[in-house]
Structure formats: structure tokens, C-alpha cells
Amino acid sequence: MSLAERSAIDRAPIIDAAAIHKSYGELAVLRGVGLTVARGDCLCIVGPSGSGKSTLLRCLNLLEPIESGRILFEGDDIAQAPKSRAPAIRQRIGMVFQNFELFQHLSARENVALAPIKVKGENRAAALERAQQLLAKVHLPDKGDAFPDELSGGQQQRVAIARALAMEPALMLYDEPTSALDPETVGEVLQVMQELAEEGRTSIVVTHEMGFARRAADRVMFMDGGLVVHEAPPADFFSPDAAVPERLARFLGRLSH
Q1: 206 closest CA partner among 60, 43, 65
Q2: Is 84 exposed, middle or buried (0-12, 13-18, 19+ CB in 10 A)?
């Protein structure tokens, strides 16, 4: 295989979704949404509350069924996959939620090692050793024995990131991972996420942190009313001189005041 062919494969979309529709009763939450993310890229999704951002992530991870549309993940239309395949697919898609979702009766190291042991059948000692390495990666090398109630919110969220990484996912999804944090701990979580993005960890991040989107994203997507309104590289997305939809201009204008 030539270098050009290998490069084309490396840059091929890891996820390619189109025309996703999702409703809850009479409420249409996603109205034909699509996105494409290449391997190694970070896509940040921004927009007002209620625009469908978090629902989109849950659909991509098969936590919510879609009514119509396509979700190609690693070339496989997972939206059409039988429910029995969903757990195996989710092993390849790590998810970091707003509220940590850690097991309170387990230490940080045990939280990180649990899924590799229970789901993948890894040797317990090896899984715990790797969990310790992942805690060091998220800047918590001395917190392996700590329980969640002994950790700050930012530390708990970093444990949650390490837990997602433990399954060696091909794609990371972050659902507003700093929204439940004290302002003092937001930066430590964003730093870890930015480091992972710079390493080439493919990720989709729903966030209100515009500074993070400027620094870490390869592309930024703005959603409103269940639609993708605009998408561009950060330099264009945030440029005061760029031609952007009026709805996005008003959104960014409010954030700057």
C-alpha cells in the first residue's frame, strides 16, 4: 500500500451521518442533521440549550433510536444494526457524560478497570495496572485509591474520561463534560481533552466552552432548532470578518458580552 493510499485511509471518515430525524412525541428534536468526522479530528458542536446537540450524541452512540437517516461508523450503518449488536458497537465509541456516572463504591482505579474486566474479559491485575496508567494520563497519578466522594468534580470527570479510554474506543463523545463543574475545575478537564485531541484522538464534543472550541477543534458546528446552521474551521467560525448566518452571529454576540 502506498503512502498516499494509507493517508487516504487514515483520513477517511470514521463517522458519516446524514438526514437524522428524531422526535419525542410531537417535538421534533433533530430535523435532518448530518455530520462527518475524519479519523484524528475533533468536532465541537455548539448552540443554545434545546438545539438537539446532546440528543445527536445519544443517537450516534445508539442510546436513542433514530426515526430515519444514516449513521455510518467505520463504514457500517449502525443505525440499521440489530439491538443485539449495540453493546459491541458502543465498545468502540467512548462516551463521557455531564454527571460523571462513576460507581461510588469503587475506587478511581477500579472504576477505570471495571469495563475491561467485565466486558472484555481482561486479566484483573493487568486491567488495574493499565487503569493506573490512564489515571496518570489524565493527571491523577496519586488518586487511584480514592473514592468518588473524595474527589472534586473535575477529578471525577477526569476519572470518567480515563474510564472511557480504557475500552480503547475509536471515537470519543463528550456531552457537555464541564457543565456540572465548579468554574475552578473546568480548566483541568478541558486541558486533558485538548491533550487527547492533539494526540489525534478522534472526538465529538458538545460544549459551551468557546475557548476550547477555538483551541482544540478541527471544525466547529453550530446547531439550532434541531438543524445544523453552520460549520467551519475555528478560524473561520469565530472570525469577526467571516460571513456567517445571522442566528450564529447573534449567538456569538451574546457570548461576548
Answers
A1: 43
A2: exposed
Residues 153/100, Cβ–Cβ less than 8 Å: yes
Give yes or no for a contact between 195 and 187, defined as CB atoms under 8 angstroms apart. Answer: no
Phi, psi (rounded to 5 degrees) for 250: -70, -40
pLDDT in tens, 117-134: 999 999 999 999 999 999
**Mean pLDDT of all residues in 5-32:** 85
Q: How confident is the model at residue 241 (pLDDT cuts 50, 70, 90)?
A: confident
pLDDT given for residue 6 in this prediction: 43
Phi, psi of 230 (to 5 degrees): -160, 150
**Which pTM does this prediction carry?**
0.93
Can you list the positions of beta strands (E) in the chain?
13-24, 27-38, 42-46, 68-73, 76-77, 93-96, 171-175, 203-206, 219-224, 227-232
